[in-house]
Amino acid sequence: MTRNTQKWYDKPISKLILVTIAITWMFPIFGFMLSSFRPGESIKRESWWDAIYTGKIWTELTLDNYSEIFFADNLDRSFYNSFAVTIPSTIIPITIAAFAAYAFAFMEFRGKEVLFLFVVGSMIIPLQMSLIPLVQLFKSGIEVFGIPIIPELDLNGTFVATWFAHTGFGLPLATFLLRDFMMGLPKSVIESAKIDGASNMTTFFKLVLPLSVAGIAAFGTFQFLWVYNDFLVANVFLGVYNPENLVVTSHVSQLAVGAYGEAWHLRTSGAIISMIVPLIVFFSLQRFFIRGLIGGAVKG
Amino acid sequence: MREQTQQEKLMSIGISMLALGIFPLIWFLSQAILFRELTDAISRNLLVVVALIIGSSFIFLLFLGMDKIIKLAPKDNRDALEARMFVGPSLFMIALFLFYPALRTFYISFKDRYSNDFVGLDNYKWAFTDPEMIVTIRNQIVWLFFVVTFVLLIGLVVGWLSDRLNKGEAFFKSIVFLPMAISAVGASAIFKFIYEYRPPPLTQIGIINGIRVSVDRGSTLPGIKPGEKCMNNRIIDGQLKDFKNDDCLNPIGWLQQRDLSNLPFAENLNPDNFFSSILVNLPVNTMLLMLIMIWMFTGFAAVVFSAGIKSIPQEIMEAGQIDGASEMRVFRSIVIPYIKSTIIVVGTYMVVTVLKAFDIIYVSTRGDLETNLLAVKMLDEFSKYRNFGRSATVAVLIFVCVLPIIIGTAIREKENTQS
To answer: N or C: which end of chain A has fewer CB within 10 A?
Structure first.
């Protein structure tokens, strides 16, 4: 209400600063995106701002770069790989965490506090801290006093390795966030369901899960964008040298590090395509994403 | 009677073990082995489809299977067992894929490169004496200071200014927030295009060098219009105008500049002057790489701050207004103190993010030319030099830097919830 009366707020100088910042922020993407529609030869012959100045740019705009990167350079395969990594890496931790969060929120059992502390405490572990032993675990398993607990698996280079890596890294936050969310649900509803004789499984699937959609969406959006945009885990567990194993980020990184010489028409179009999925997710689920981000602010 | 309880006890212990260890382990192994075999056996496209289906649905089998087992348990302590079954997989996964590896990283940081023999603190000694490591640590500190400061400052400005707009607030915030959705790899590609250097006489397609080569050396002198003689290879009236003569500035490989000494204006600096020597030693490439991260994360700060500013009660703001406080004064004395805890949370998040920054460096310079950061160094030691001990040591360093920050946050959270 009062927002409209705050005339003293609405000064031109603040608008000027904002517009300047907005233009500065869009500027890097602008030239890059424009170049993705120009033929490779033109990009190298004439800078994009000169091309705008001379007006030549309007005659040369083309979609060829996109079809080249997508079909000739196999970016489509990297896309499929990205989804094969991202979607299970989002669903597995959400499912496991939802069950655990339900137990931490609504069930009584011995050691509940200690176990929850363990979950929350493991949020402080940075991903880098687990990387090397995880690679070794996926390769040659674990032996305790010579007895193999986990056999030699040789998982590195398969999708499964990334699923479990992302599950391990995402679970503490997921459990914490979902438990927080479930604690906010009306306790009486859950208790009355129990009194009516509903089993925990039924209460979980029929009552708590539908009520927790917003919490699940918050973490889901966060995790999806995190995994999709991740390069480190994909680099370590899938590698960048086997083109069959490239995900979108590692594909774009291969384009950018110079393996392709001066192929700016591919670099630009590849990077722009890679941004489409996160931007769609981001704009449609922005509300949830920001919530997940703030929740994830303390993740190690 | 007594025998019965014994049996029950055994049963519940057995089921607990099933839930906490054996079941998740079997689930993990079966999925892993199944998939490893499939990877070689079927075509790539089919594999992706199978991965999507199996990867997303297999997890439900785990819980449904455990539910079946629970039904066998005696009724009176089924509840406790069921709780264990619910939390079991989560604890198992965290323990196996996060906790155990982290402990092991500690352990192998005291061993040699092949993790065979103990070397005591040698790796840590290396971490603080090796010249390359010292540069890496220096960069990490520079990054922490500048990135966090600028993200917080610009974020505050955008959050505060956009809040006072009558309309278009969401639009401005979205624009600044947009880079957050983009991968760091994509962002690095974008900025590499801006910093692009091509040896003369090629056309400069990065805008910084493009502007540079279009400026005459003598352009500050009266009578010479800038850009009159120097052109970024443009054909005017059938004649190529370029920047190859002595009056034009040369393009610079920005990401190759580890200090300012190659830039022309460094010639004018007096090396004995304290400030000049600091200026000359400014790591240009590191500064430019930091811009990428600032560009990416400012929007996040702005959005969070804007939410915090909105939660300030209107009466407080109006009181300031009636008292005739200037805008800067309102900002300093009302807004900042009110959202202090939000600033700390965002600052914490940024510190942790910067400590783990990897993609930007890896894609832009690969850590060469004194631009390295800890996370990149860690992976280099691991996959390039194959020195597991040193790599683990760098990981421990990252952890040790993150630790106090997170503990501080936890303590504050606890105080907040108690008060």
So the answer is: N
A124 with A101, same domain? Answer: yes
Tell me: do A119 and A133 sit in the same domain. Answer: yes
pLDDT at B69 over 70: yes
Contacts of B363 in chain A (CB under 8 A): 231, 253, 256-257
Strands A147-150 and A142-144: antiparallel
- Considering just the CA atoms, what is the radius of gyration of chain A in Å? 24
Using CA coordinates, name the residue in chain B closest to A199: B79
Q: What is the pLDDT of residues B76-119, one digit of tens each?
A: 667 777 888 888 889 988 988 999 999 999 999 998 888 888 88
Query: Considering only CA atoms, which of A272, A42, A151 is closest in space to residue B28?
Result: A151
**Nearest neighbour of B55 by CB, restricted to A155, A159, A274:** A159
On whether both A113 and A9 belong to a single domain, the answer is no
The single-letter DSSP state of residue B182 is S
Boundaries of domain holding A101:
65-298
| pTM for the full predicted model | 0.87
Distance between CA A257 and CA A247 in Å, rounded? 15
Q: What are phi and psi of B386, to 5 degrees?
A: 55, 40
Spell out which residues of chain A touch residue B232, defining contact as CB-CB under 8 Å.
47, 50
Number of domains in chain A: 2
Q: ipTM higher than 0.90?
A: no
Cβ pair A96:B154 closer than 8 A: no
